[in-house]
Write a structure and sequence with these properties.
The complex is a heterotrimer of chains A (296), B (529) and C (344).
Chain A lengths: L1 H26 L7 H19 L2 H25 L4 H24 L5 E2 L19 H18 L2 H11 L1 H6 L4 H25 L4 E2 L7 H11 L4 H25 L5 H5 L1 H15 L16
Antiparallel strand pairs in A: 1-2
Chain B lengths: L8 E10 L2 E11 L4 E5 L6 H8 L7 E6 L2 E3 L4 H7 L1 E4 L11 H7 L10 H14 L15 H12 L6 E5 L7 H16 L3 E6 L2 H7 L2 E6 L2 E8 L5 H9 L8 H8 L22 E8 L14 E2 L4 E5 L6 H8 L5 E8 L2 E2 L5 H6 L2 E4 L3 H5 L6 H12 L8 H14 L16 H12 L6 E5 L7 H16 L3 E5 L3 H7 L2 E6 L2 E7 L4 H9 L11
Parallel strand pairs in B: 3-8, 3-9, 6-7, 7-8, 13-18, 13-19, 16-17, 17-18
Antiparallel strand pairs in B: 1-2, 1-4, 4-5, 9-10, 11-12, 11-14, 14-15, 19-20
Helix pairs in contact in B: 3-4, 3-5, 9-17, 13-14, 13-15, 15-16
Chain C lengths: L1 H27 L4 H14 L3 H24 L7 H18 L5 H30 L4 H20 L31 H20 L1 H11 L1 H6 L4 H28 L10 H11 L4 H25 L4 H14 L5 H4 L8
Classes of the chains: A mainly alpha (296), B alpha/beta (529), C mainly alpha (344).
């Protein structure tokens, strides 16, 4: 039983961090499809950072810095250049995936897997079986709670929602929606960096190009499914993580009897269903159709 | 009102330019503290721009703003609010999904901390109670009636102990009773020492509430602030209108500036067509409730060719649903609709249009035009939809036909390839008229056709509707402007909560029509839930 | 006319921004940016045989991109082109299997029909979802892409598996030589002819029919067109389905032409590249042709880069991504250059 919980926490935590990044962005009015790219950048930067500085803390900081820079670039393109957020987000994702692949190839000469000498600090023996989990897993519930407080129980959260839902009303009371989106995307960048770091260093510590394998999009869907509510979105993220874990288990159990790739589709089928369901329940909050930013 | 205290709000040489359009030009004005000031002018005169400059929402191209004698930084809402100026917008600026408590909290100045749902409601209850507003705190803004939404907006504006409160066109969506309640509240505010600036465009309202009057026209200040006692309604009318409209009949002129009382002479041409079948008959029509408006409940209006029927009522009482039902955009749960004697209940909108239905929709820019498309595309949409979709067309020929039509209707434009969004409100509306009013129009629905238009364009629309009526069309006019309704309609029908609440013939009495709008006899108070 | 020219200029300016960003990324990753970019141009047009190669890639891209453009114009954002491309190829492969042995002049058109129908049906699902429940069509379409990819894997390792295939790449049985429409180089009169016919027909549809005018209006303001009496499905959904059919056609061409078979995971970026082309070309049919050649050149360079210049192919992905990042920008950069009239 412990094994199952540990597996779920391990696979769910990176997804949760990135989902929260998507949720903040959504509340501010931006559909952030750059999450996949950001997660990749976070993962790659962490591993390369460890190899470069031999310090996990420094590596995390590098990852955070890179993700925030990328997020600010996205913000600039969407807000100042008024690009379409969905295409721009997909472009950022492409840059993230391609850029990390390029970096790996440039440093190591080929698109191989890069292994770092050590990984994230673990909780340690004091926690028994759960000692193998990293500190980010332990931090995760606090982060979710903190974000819930910020978004749903603070004036800042209301101002953020207003910026996404009714920018004119926000401006009328002196809020600057453009600045709000910058803050939202930057915080999102930090969260994606941590999510990527956790993904790369949770048990084994390695990075290979495309490592995130669409988790960024799952996180985005979880955010939609959760109606931009941090706790519901976290639940959705775990739902998808469990579906993924079940898929792997089913693979192991049923082996050749079921085409393994169809089992791989389980989490993605879950997201299609989830998004359809959330659409029925009046999901996708605050962003307009095709993710366009609302005009005044 | 000591002559030694500085003006509560003053503007010096304020100019606002957007590209080649000048919204305000060298406007200088000073408002004395503790009074109720009215800023008047027709649509397009620059009143809203003025209000937004004064409150920091719009950065002027030139000029300065002073609050209580201190020059403040323009274009920064935070600073204006800190100096004590608050603006209540014409179309409400409250996020629809917020609860009442959240709507108060998000606009509160300063950092603010964490709160609990209950604590938030408690925190704001006292503030609203102090303003005599009773409302369920857990309700969301979008579920509240229009008058309550406005009260909440005013309450939000008063959180900061505002010294100057600017209300931009607050009467546009209110019933006569609602307007009275608003004015009562404004007078109470004056007693508390708040300087109130009201942006209005109806003379009748202005004379009922203002201590001083300032008139804007064409982006300039043409008079004032003068004491309301020192200026006559006629002079006001002349100042507002300028020479925008010459040779208007007095009834129209009064209606244009909101100076009307009752209207005795309403010329009507329907006698000529009295023998023809009714143009539109609704029989016990009820609609399926949906998210877009109050459902209809067994309404049975009918219109004959050659008459204009006006639909009065506070917005949100089913007028839009009525239009949507006729346009097959709302589902019927009961009843039938007949157009020109033919049952169209089962027919699609395209078929109804082919049978002579024409619509000038409520939202010009959303329902009437595609702003980023060209004029000729917008203009030709109706005709193109009458034919098969795969028909080959020649854009050059369409453009030529469009040019001819637009010129006939007096639209000011450069080329039919320019975007519809580049036209002024009045010209854009003319494009819609050019498209909708043709020889085959049997029933024309005109929904808020003059909203936002200046006097010249408004008069033009009225002329066009009358001309269509004289040629035998039936016109269904929906408007929240009672002066307009009374001036043009042959009959007025009042809608309330999806039902017909009253039918009136000329001469119209604003008291009885107003009473029907809010529920005959029921005293509507600000304490409405 | 002038607006058109300005729009094209704007596109070019943003492509330039993208290339600058790419140069920065390349330098940062340790490569010599000018060398990289020169290699790309070499691979695209300058070395012998490059032009033919670029055309080979450009033609199927052009067909899909024209479809995507039509759909975008009507307001249905066809992000699912990749999935429709795959399903079209799969349907064509099944049809080829089923009809094997028949006369070429009957079988070939039927295979095309199957491919286009496959693509059209794959577009129907997200389109109907949008119409029925108002769900945004983007997410289901993205998922549809992934599912199509899985379907391709399944089909090539199951029902259509090539019995003589090696372990390396999983692919289907090769198409009978009689039914091939080009050799493995991929350029043939048939393919060129199909592209030209598609181009002309779609140009006429967009610019000279009621459908074209009304769909364009619907794309910019669906509400207004509804109030005129149009049914959204007539204009938007039809455009979406046409787009799917064209993507399916492109998939069929790849199957019957240069590839001769369908392989698991072949051409995974075709759809997204086609979307980029449509966006850069600002949704005009003629522009799409020109831009398709540009991106065809990029694809040709992608093959050349690692082999001849020792540079990673990921560089091309980065160029694509950077273009995507900037290309939908709507600020009127030209006003910074003091050209044109400022609009809204």
């Amino acid at each position: 039983m412990n094994d199952v919980i540990i597996a779920i926490l391990r696979s769910g935590t990176p997804l949760v961090y990135v989902t929260l990044a998507g949720v903040i962005a959504q509340r501010a009015g931006v559909w952030n499809l750059g999450l996949e790219g950001l997660m990749n950048i976070g993962a790659c930067a962490t591993i390369l950072g460890i190899m470069l500085t031999q310090s996990y803390a420094a590596a995390i900081l590098i990852a955070i810095a890179m993700c925030v820079i990328a997020s600010v670039l996205l913000w600039f393109v969407i807000e100042k250049l008024k690009a379409n957020p969905i295409i721009a987000g997909l472009g950022l994702t492409g840059l993230g995936i391609g850029g990390t692949a390029l970096a790996v190839e440039s440093i190591f000469g080929s698109q191989a897997t890069v292994t770092a000498p050590f990984g994230a600090p673990k909780l340690g023996a004091a926690f028994g079986a759960y000692g193998v989990l990293s500190i980010f897993v332990a931090a995760m519930p606090f982060v979710v709670f903190a974000l819930w407080l910020l978004l749903k129980r603070s004036r800042f959260g209301l101002q953020l929602s207003a910026s996404g839902e009714h920018p004119f009303a926000a401006r009328g009371v002196g809020i600057q929606p453009v600045r709000m989106r910058l803050i939202a995307l930057s915080i999102g960048g930090i969260l994606c960096a941590i999510g990527g770091a956790e993904l790369a260093t949770r048990s084994l510590q390695f990075f290979s190009p495309g490592k995130t394998s669409r988790r960024g999009f799952m996180a985005f869907a979880a955010g939609l499914f959760g109606g931009a509510h941090p706790i519901r979105a976290t639940a959705a993220a775990f739902f998808f993580a469990i579906a993924g874990a079940l898929g792997i288990r089913a693979q192991l159990m049923f082996g050749d009897k079921v085409p393994h790739d169809l089992l791989q589709a389980l989490p993605y089928l879950a997201t299609v269903f989830g998004v359809w369901l959330s659409g029925k329940l009046g999901g996708a909050k605050t962003a307009g159709s095709f993710g366009e930013l609302k005009d005044q | 009102m000591s002559i030694h205290s500085p003006p509560a709000l003053a503007c010096r040489d304020v100019t606002v330019r957007y590209g080649d359009v000048t919204a305000l030009s060298d406007v200088s004005v000073a408002f004395e503290p503790g009074l109720i000031h009215a800023v008047v002018g027709q649509n397009g005169a620059g009143k809203t721009t003025f209000a937004r400059v004064a409150s920091g929402l719009v950065q002027p191209t030139n000029g300065a703003v002073e609050i209580a004698g201190q020059v403040i930084r323009t274009g920064h809402v935070r600073e204006s609010r800190a100096a004590g100026v608050e603006l209540v917008h014409q179309s409400f600026a409250l996020p629809p999904s917020f609860t009442v408590a959240e709507a108060m909290e998000f606009g509160a100045p300063g950092r603010g901390g964490l709160y609990s749902r209950k604590g938030l409601a408690e925190k704001w209850r006292a503030h609203l109670a102090g303003l005599d507003i009773q409302v369920d705190f857990s309700k969301r803004i979008r579920d509240l009636p229009v008058e309550t939404q406005q009260s909440i907006e005013i309450a939000r504006a008063l959180i900061t102990d505002a010294k100057v409160l600017i209300l931009d066109e607050p009467t546009a969506v209110l019933s006569p009773a609602g307007i009275e309640m608003l004015f009562a509240r404004v007078r109470r505010l004056k007693q508390r020492g708040v300087t109130v600036i009201l942006i209005l465009h109806k003379i009748r309202e202005v004379l009922g509430i203002a201590d001083t009057i300032t008139v804007l026209r064409g982006g300039r200040r043409v008079e004032g602030p003068v004491s309301a006692a020192d200026i006559s309604a006629d002079r006001l009318a002349t100042l507002i209108v300028g020479d925008a409209v010459k040779g208007q009949n007095p009834g129209d002129r009064d209606a244009l500036v909101g100076n009307g009382g009752t209207h005795a002479d309403v010329p009507s041409g329907h006698q000529r067509y009295a023998s023809l079948a009714p143009a539109l008959v609704l029989s016990a029509v009820s609609t399926v409730p949906d998210s877009e408006g109050a459902p209809l409940d067994k309404v049975s209006p009918s219109i004959r060719p050659g008459e204009i029927v006006g639909i009065a009522g506070v917005e949100g009482n089913g007028q839009k649903t009525l239009v949507r039902a006729i346009a097959d955009l709302a589902g019927l749960s009961a009843g039938t609709i007949a157009l020109g004697g033919e049952d169209i209940t089962r027919k699609s909108l395209a078929a109804r249009r082919a049978a002579g239905l024409r619509i000038i929709p409520f939202e010009r820019n959303i329902e009437g035009l595609s702003l980023t498309s060209s004029l000729w595309e917008n203009w030709s949409a109706r005709e193109l939809l009458q034919g098969p979709l795969l028909r080959l067309v020649n854009p050059a020929r369409i453009r030529a036909l469009c040019d001819g039509s637009l010129k006939r209707w007096g639209v000011h434009y450069h080329t039919s390839a320019q975007r519809a969004g580049s036209l002024s409100g009045g010209n854009a509306q003319k494009v819609i008229l050019a498209r909708e009013i043709d020889a085959d129009a049997k029933l024309i629905i005109a929904a808020q056709p003059t909203r936002g238009l200046d006097i010249g364009a408004t008069a033009f629309v009225w002329e066009s509707l009358r001309a269509a009526r004289d040629k035998g069309a039936a016109i269904l006019l929906i408007s929240s402007d009672l002066d307009e309704l009374f001036d043009i309609s042959d009959r007025v029908v009042v809608m309330l909560s999806g039902r017909v609440a009253g039918a009136f013939a000329a001469p119209y009495d604003i008291q009885s029509v107003g009473a029907a709008m809010t529920g005959a006899g029921a005293a509507a108070t600000g304490a409405q839930r | 006319m002038r607006d058109r020219a300005i729009a094209i200029l704007r596109s070019l300016i943003f492509v330039a921004f993208s290339l600058i960003l790419c140069a920065v990324v390349f330098q940062f990753a340790g490569y010599n940016a000018p060398q990289m970019l020169t290699a790309v141009v070499d691979g695209a047009f300058l070395r012998p045989g490059a032009v033919e190669q670029s055309l080979r890639w450009a033609l199927p891209l052009f067909i899909t991109a024209v479809g995507v453009g039509i759909s975008f114009r009507a307001g249905f954002f066809n992000i699912g082109a990749q999935g429709q491309f795959y399903v079209g190829a799969i349907a064509a492969a099944f049809a080829a299997e089923a009809l094997r042995g028949g006369p070429a002049f009957i079988v070939i058109p039927l295979i095309f029909l199957a491919g286009m129908t496959g693509g059209a049906l794959w577009a129907l699902w997200p389109g109907l979802l949008k119409l029925r429940s108002g769900t945004d069509e983007v997410i289901p379409a993205l998922r549809g892409n992934f599912l199509a990819g899985l379907l391709l894997v399944y089909v090539t390792s199951g029902p259509l598996k090539d019995p003589s295939g090696s372990g390396q790449q999983v692919s289907s049985r090769p198409l009978d030589a009689a039914y091939r429409i080009s050799n493995s180089l991929g350029l043939s009169p048939t393919i060129i002819g199909i592209a030209i016919v598609v181009g002309i027909l779609m140009w006429v549809l967009v610019n000279r029919t009621s459908f074209g005018v009304l769909a364009s209006l619907a794309g910019r303001n669906g509400t207004m067109v509804r109030w005129q009496g149009a049914k959204l499905w007539q204009l938007g959904l039809s455009s979406f389905v046409i787009s799917g059919a064209l993507a399916g056609l492109a998939g069929t061409i790849e199957f019957m032409g240069p590839n001769g078979r369908i392989a698991s995971g072949f051409l995974p970026t075709h759809g997204f590249t086609a979307i980029l082309i449509a966006l850069v070309a600002n949704l005009s049919v003629v522009g799409t042709a020109a831009v398709a050649i540009f991106f065809g050149g990029l694809a040709s360079a992608a093959l050349y880069l690692p082999i001849m210049a020792g540079l990673p192919a990921a560089a091309i992905d980065i160029i694509n991504a950077a273009i995507a990042l900037f290309i939908t920008a709507r600020t009127h950069v030209e006003k910074f250059l003091r050209l044109g009239r400022r609009s809204s």
